[in-house]
Give the backbone structure.
Amino acid sequence: MSITEYIFWFLSFLAVLSGLMVVFSKNAVYSVLYLIITFFAIAGHYLLMSAQFLAAVHIIVYAGAIMVLFLYVIMMLNQNKSAEPNKHPYLMFISVIAAGALLLTLIGGLKSATVAQASNAQSNIGTIETLGKVLFTEFLLPFELSSILFLAAMVGAVYLSKNKLEA
Amino acid sequence: MQNLTGITINDYIILSTVLFCIGALGVMLRRNAIIIFMCVELMLNAVNVLLVAFSNHFGDSQAQVFVFFIMAVAAAEVAVGLAILIMIYRNAGTSDTDVLNKLKW
């Protein structure tokens, strides 16, 4: 096994284990911290797939912005204690069975799928230069439209979290 | 797959399937709306990993631009969703999804 394979398996186990800990940890703050570990493992996967720009953006956006927002909301709602008494004893059993069935179905369906052979892949598709050229030529309209999306999201978030809605 | 000896696209398919199912398990299992939200983020990221893997497999950078847009939409979604969550908490006094059953048939 080469070094990249070791890194791949290490990152995969890290992502899956901390993903499971997100689901099963009682404290919401611990869930956020485990989700940050998962995001770092996924960023490592991006680096392994030579998508350097996406790895950087992933760290900045997810670990830097989104998870801080989550932590901030948990702090504001004062949820750092392990509330959530388990009212349904069979809920966990049924959920695990359902998720396992989903996993088996997806893997069973995807196992029979054959992926076409890779074309002669060039190694510089993940660099900022290549992605910037594609983003500002082919995807210029969606790029500009996403700014409108952000504006709408910003206005919506501010309006929703106002103290009193005078409607 | 270039410069990845031994790691095939199927490994990445299985990895992202497992991550997606963990997210789905969390959505089904947990009742705290914030944690449900985080599990939705995990599912989005599983899809992103698969898109980047196929982008690397076929040598096409358009999928990476797609992942970029997915991240942008996810950021906007989180901002609005957490604002809605704060509103729910302010009105109902909890973020437990079992309490929010007014729309339940």
